[in-house]
Each structure stands twice: as structure tokens, then as C-alpha cells.
Amino acid sequence: MKDCLFCKIIKKELPSKIVYEDDNFFAFNDINPVAPIHILIIPKKHIPSVNSLTASDKELIGELFLVAQKIARAEKATETGYRLTFNVGENAGQTVEHLHLHLLGGKKLLWS
Amino acid sequence: MKDCLFCKIIKKELPSKIVYEDDNFFAFNDINPVAPIHILIIPKKHIPSVNSLTASDKELIGELFLVAQKIARAEKATETGYRLTFNVGENAGQTVEHLHLHLLGGKKLLWS
């Protein structure tokens, strides 16, 4: 998507602190971290949000969580615990319309 | 799993407020809700956490998010926004060792 911030980050037209990259996924540090570990893991395919997922995205989403597990392990977040979150829409504070999974860790996380 | 709380809920050996059920998934209201909509969506297969996912679970996890989308739509959470979260381990406050996806909605959600 031409005007999508995250598509530009994937294409390296915009800078990011890259954590992981493969053929289908890209991960980078959140610029407004709310935890010591705060990484965004995104599919390279432009999918606006969870609301837009279709049956054809099933395998991609499954794979995304295996990538998240791999990154959590590399960041040693698996030892102390971590959170994986999709925010969808306004009430959840989704600010970029490109599906992104938050990986939060490195501290005791609040819950509400 | 014999001693798993959520396996017992799936088998209806323990009561729950059921929101959704199909061959592979089960969803019910969280007994300690932190938002007006707070539903747990779980695979019937006993998987302890995101850390235990393997490549063979890919399709199941993809399907779980299509189920989550369907429930969010039925609960009208898609209109105002919602959050989908896996808590993994201690720092995230995972209390039951059976993979469960939190669906939170119906209010402006905090972020930290």
C-alpha cells in the first residue's frame, strides 16, 4: 500500500530498528515502547486489521505466532513471560492500519 | 488433560457462560472481567501456552483468529474496537496453562 507507514518501513523507505525479517514477516522496535521489550511483528502483506482477515490468511496468521515465539525466545522473554496483542480499532488504540502484533515483555505487565 | 481447568470447562464438567462452540474451539466469559466484553477463546486441544506451539498448530491458530473475528462481530465489538491478547507466563499473569485468547472490548482500553 503506497501510503501505509508500515509498508514503507518494510520496504526500508522509512527507518526502523529491525529485530527480525524473513520472506513473509518483519519485526521492529515500537517507537513508543510501553515495556522494556516492545516489538511490532507484522506480515509483509498489507492487511489492515484483524477485522479484514479472511480464510486465505489462516496459515499466515498461524506462522506469525511461530515467528513471535521465535522472537520471544531470542529476546529471552520466554523465561519471565510476555504478552502478544492485536489492537483493533479505536477503543484499543490501533493507530496504523496495517496488522501488527505487539510483543511486550521485560516487566510485570498491567492488566485492564 | 485430566487436571486442566479449561479442559474441564470444555467437557462441561465445570460451568461457564458459553459464548461460542464448534468442533475445535470453545469461548466463554472470563470470570474476572476487566472490560464490559471479556471473553476467553480456547482451542479444545490442550496446548499449554504460546511457548508450546509447533508448526503443526499453525492452521489451528489461524482459525482461532477467524473465530475471534466472528465473536467480535457478534458482540458488536468490531464497531468500537477490541483487543486480542495472549498472556504467556508470569510477567503477563497467565494463570491457566491452557492456551487462551482474551477478547476485550466495550470500553476504551488502557495501554501499558
TrEMBL record, chains A, B:
Give the coiled coil ranges: none
Q: Where is this motif: Histidine triad motif?
A: 98-102
**MF terms (GO), sorted A to Z:** catalytic activity
User: Record's CDD domains?
Assistant: PKCI_related (cd01276)
Query: Which is an annotated Pfam family here?
Result: HIT
Task: Give every HIT domain span.
Answer: 5-112
Where is the catalytic site? H100
This one is known as: Histidine triad nucleotide-binding protein
